[in-house]
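Tokens for Receptor kinase-like protein Xa21. Go.
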Amino acid sequence: MLWLDRNHLVGKIPTHANFPPHLQSLLISYNNLTGKIPVSLFNVTTLTRLDISSNRISGEIPSEIGNMPMLQFFFAWGNKLSGRFQPAILNVSSLAVLSLASNYLSGQLPSNLGSSSPNLQKFGLFNNLFDGPIPNSLLNASKLSLVDLSSNNFTGVVPSSIGKLKELSWLNLEYNQLQARDKQDWEFMNSLSNCTELQKLSLRGNRLEGRLSDTFANLSAKLEMFFFGRNRLSGGFPAGIANLHSLEFLALDENQFTGVIPEWLGTLESLRVIVLRNNAFTGYIPSSLSNLSLLGELFLDSNQLYGHIPPSLGNLKTLESLELSNNILNGSIPKEIFSIPTIREIALSSNSLGEPLPTEVGRAKQLQYLYLSSNNLSSGIPDTLGNCDSMEYIELDQNFLSGSIPASLGSIRNLQVLNVSHNRLSGSIPKSIGSLMYLEQLDLSFNRLEGEVPEIGIFKNVTALWVDGNKGLCGGAAKLHLPACPVIPSNSTKHVTSTVLKVVIPLVSMVSLAVVISVLLFWRRKRKKIYMSLPSFGRKFPRVSCHDLDRATDGFSTSNLIGRGGYSSVYKGRLLQDGTIVAVKIFTVETRGAQKSFIAECNALRNVRHRNLVPILTACSSIDSKGNDFKALVYEFMPKGDLHALLYSALGDENTSNSERITLAQRLSIMVDVADALEYLHHDNQGAIVHCDLKPSNILLDDNMTAHVGDFGLARFKAGPTQSHFSDSNSASSTVIKGTIGYVAPEWATGGEVSVAGDIYSYGIILFEIFLRKRPTEDMFKDGLSITNFVEMNFPAGISQIVDSDLLQDHPVATKEKDLDCLVSVLNVGLCCTKLSPSERPNMHEVAASLHRVKEAYLGGR
């Protein structure tokens, strides 16, 4: 045995290393090794265990691995390996464990994957770039107990005979593109009932649709984990779950489930985690949940639950997280939940909870996060809150709290965020808060505070402090721009002053009372407008205020500006509620058409979900601190930026290394992603949606280079099969689409009828642009020559002369021919999409199918 793991080794594995002749186990994991895997490593034919995981090794796995007749364990996860799955691995019939997770491996898996692996027990490929179907041959590896193919791009359906794997205990297929639409697609669930050892099952983050049948009631009695969140599942709460008595982890979040959460859920006594957030469940929170003595996390947020929070939840003595935000709950916050000894997080924001915050909150010694924003809490902040020694986040904003801010809050030494804005708090600001050394954010804005602002600790950092909207405050740091505090009069002037005050005060009081009443009535109307004017989405979103977004973007700082359009500007920001990095789209409401664009985008996104659409997190339609209209949309941040920037900055820079440029495979995958998004919008949604402004700058890319279509400000809708025309959000008439020059369909430019064919034309133009790296508006395209004509003139013989030179340069002849075949096929699709007559263009079903075939042929033949 030679164990060199965790030794901070650097450099490359020696090409001609002299390993002991009878070496059986070689461990060089958890180092900083680079370079490629040397072929000589596989000359040690006596090896039974080889572990090179958690390094920075790159390149392909050598085919010589097939010469290892005794190898049983091969660990190579957590490196930078690339290329296709090495088929020679299948020659190692002794292999029991294969882990290639967290690399950059791509392409389809071999069709004979499990046929020659009789001893394979654990098979891990998660977090790679594999695509195509899961081979049915995998089911021939009958000893498999663990299969983890998560976080790839596998498509198709789950093999219907997966139940052949009788020893399977862990099946993880989450975060792929697997689909199930009809009874035949769902047959795998029936088959899984044969896997009597199954303990963990996850299909989270795929394209599963429809109702969950009750067939999974026959799943293994040993099943502990059932993760089906982030799909398109609908219907009532799956009744078959009632039979899964060993279940510990249940996640059905981010689907479209409706109906009530059943009382029988409280009979599954092994449950430790319940995640049902982001659905459309209604009714009461089942009181039976208090019987789950092992429950540690309960996530029911972002549904339509109503009624009171059951006080019996206080019986859950192991509960750590209670998240019920974004529902319609009312009544008081039960004092019992603060006596749970393990509670770390209580999130009840955006409900209608009223009455005072219980003084028992001080009993929650382990509580770190308290989110009670946007409720109807009244009375004062209890002094006992200062007893919560572990508290890090306190958010009590947008309530009706009154009285003074307790000085005891200065005793919470670990406090990082304190937000009590938009309440009715009065009195002075406690100086004790300035002694909190870890405090990063303090929001006291829009209250009735008065007196001098302290100048210690957090109060010196004006970028982390908000005190606006408190007219009685004075002094403080100069950058706060508050008025100076009045000078206290000396003894010699007190008599005169008191005489004057006796006359003035009654008069001022009467005037002030009238003003206060007027302001309160105005504020009440304005406050109602702020929180009642949010767009009506089909699913519940977390509520944010314009003030939250101002803080998230450092006051909409230009350093956070990442894009600007005709109606809006986009900023990068970090939500203080949970630290999420987001893209905040601020609409310039004074610009004509901006309001309409905001409504159009809300209508387009309220009921759509697809992995290739930019995920919307929430919206804000309110009044800012200056009394102006404020409208914003908050999206998931796409770290790779947009396609236009990627094409013309990274690719256009001569100093950019080839490794940073977009490969042919990446460009093809991007266009397949966009095709899938349009297919969903045109065909798979409840009513067809026409994007109307498809262009590279509206195609955003995440960390995995997966494409997401965004910006629906010009979108048009057809509500259903009975509506024959497309309309915008405010009018049923067909109007001329503004679109973008170069991408807009010719029939739209002349005032023709809006149809999905216009999007297809734009898609074809982008196909040309991404593979030619030429804008459709370049100077060369004039005097009747368009980018479409240019491709037609050179198709197919001259394609190699017009495509982006990076795609074909320095390639071997065989590879170049394969690349050229792919390019010809892709550009042919583009020519079909850009036919002048809309009726001659294919639909997106056909376009997406064609692109998938091209991708499979290209990646399958490399």
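The two ends are 38 Å apart (CA to CA).
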